[in-house]
Amino acid sequence: MFSIGTRGSHLATTQSGHVRDALGEVGHPAELQIVTTSGDLSQAPVERIGVGVFTSALRDALFTGEVDIAVHSFKDLPTAYEPRAHMVVPARADSREALIARDGLTLAELPQGARVGTSAPRRISQLKAIRPDLDIRPLRGNIERRMSYVENGELDAIILAYAGLVRGGYGDRPTEVFDPQVFMPAPAQGALAVECRTDDAAARAAIDKLADASATAESTAERSVLATLEAGCTAPVAATAVRNGDTVALRAGVFALDGSRQLVEEAEGTDPAELGRRVAEALLERGAAALMD
Q1: DSSP state of 257
Q2: Residues 147 and 112 in one domain
Q3: What is residue 293's predicted lDDT score, i.e. its pLDDT?
Q4: Residue 25 belongs to what domain range?
Q5: Catalytic residue numbers?
Q6: Is 70 exceeded by the pLDDT of residue 38?
Q7: Tell me, what DSSP letter sits at residue 248?
Q8: Which single residue of 131, 154, 165, 285 could bond 149 by disulfide (Cβ 3.0 to 4.6 Å)?
Q9: What is the number of structural domains in the chain?
Q10: Are 207 and 242 found together in one domain?
Q11: Is 7:142 a contact under the CB 8 Å cutoff?
């Protein structure tokens, strides 16, 4: 039986549980093993401590043999190639961004100066471009804690990934789910990355059965934008890709944190990694580096 390393949050164990169940369905029984990270014990916003503390702890457990398989939110992984890990991307959940607001309000219906919670620069910059009047507040904690700020009246609304809400059983909570052409998600949002050790032939054969061609192509194109821009997962960079047959359509943007400027590029291609590089280079030619700085 394979052991699957996961963080202990409700969302993480739910996501990893889906991977466990999928492995079982293809004849490879597995069980979850909780890996506690320093990030789980911190009260600081993720943007301050960095998502790397979560992914590195899971990878450490994988490479030391504590677990056989690790499950990550793909958007949290570094873009640098890790030769010790063999990775696959299963079928992807909905990548869109979602608003949870009091009284069933949409973003356009929020009152002037409404308090909206998010700590992600990518979300802050797009919110300010659409509604410069909003009072953006930092947000920390698991999904349940974040939603509680709206429930108890501390915030008027929050922005979360729709995929996490659906996976956590809260798919009915959003008051608005944004068109990605209007509010772009993070690269690889909604996708999971399932890793095993490169030299573990049995685990490689097992997780290879979970790989999804469309999810792999789309997330590869989106993350290629990040890699070419040399941007971290908390940079004000967004991307969304759709695979149709052999072709991938990619749209990516880099935003000024105050919402004053947005650079957006679109292209199509059959090589996802090359497509991402091409779109990122077009953004750099238009001054993306200065916006990210």
Answers
A1: T
A2: yes
A3: 77
A4: 2-90+191-211
A5: 76
A6: no
A7: E
A8: 154
A9: 3
A10: no
A11: no
